[in-house]
Structure formats: structure tokens, C-alpha cells
Amino acid sequence: xxxxxxxxxxxxxxxxxxxxxxxxxxxxxxxxxxxxxxxxxxxxxxxxxxxxxxxxxxxxxxxxxxxxxxxxxxxxxxxxxxxxxxxxxxxxxxxxxxxxxxxxxxxxxxxxxxxxxxxxxxxxxxxxxxxxxxxxxxxxxxxxxxxxxxxxxxxxxxxxxxxxxxxxxxxxx
Length: 173
What we know:
There is one protein chain. The protein is an alpha/beta fold. 50% of the residues lie in helices and 19% in strands. Strands 3-2-1-4-5 form a 5-stranded mixed β-sheet, with helices on both faces. The longest helix has 29 residues, at 143-171.
């Protein structure tokens, strides 16, 4: 690949959770779809696993991504959740089975990539709004809505960071 060629990659980025699953689909740097899958009530891992695979399966069928990028559990609360750790690994295994290239990053990676001084969820969301102004409507100060939509901001940032890293590696000698 020459340095003038463009790396066209469709990425599905996933911010997994036992309550909410944030997903974004990007083609190159165009955000073509985003959403949140909600798992209301107390759910067991087998129930969530089945719903996640069904949901992601529809997205793979509809958008045909080449890459699945997923946020790894990192912070103490998520690392202590055996269900979340298992779900994350199962999503990666499922993606491999579907023939997708798998990339995973800790939640600190997009913050370091897009936010210089203040590496918080809020600053990451603001950085995504600068790139995708139509996401502004989801940047709210209501705590419950904010927590919900942060999953989309995390997924979008994860996908965009992965796209830029893949593009860089494709053009570097």
C-alpha cells in the first residue's frame, strides 16, 4: 500500500456492559451508525450473552464491518465483575468466529489519544462532539442521561481511535 492510498475500513466499536452496550459503526472516519442496547432488570450472564450476540449479529449483517474493537475492563469495578470480564472475552471470541479483525483497548487509551490535559469521560465526550457536532444533543448534564449516553461517546472514540491507528500503520513503511 502506498502512502497516497486510503485505508477503507469499516469498524464496529463496542463498549460492553452488563446493563448497557454502546456500539458505533464507522467507515473510515464517518460515523454511520451508533446506539445503545439496554438490558433492563437483573440479568444473568447467559441471558445478556445471548442478547448481545443477537444484537451484534444483526449489526454485522447490516453493516458488514471488517474490524471489531472492544473496550477492555480496566477500572476496579469492572475488573471485579467476573460477568463483565467473561462477556468481553466472549464478544471477542464471537467476533473472531465471525471473521472480524479484533482490537481491544483499555478505556484510558481513547482519553489519552483525544484529550491532552484533562483525560475524563466528559472531556472525551466533548472531543467527540467537536468531531461529530450532531452528538451534541446527547451531551447532557442530567446524571442519569449522561451515564447512559457516555457509552455511545466511549464507543465512538474507541472506533475512531482504532481507525486512525489502523490508517497510520497502513501508510507507515
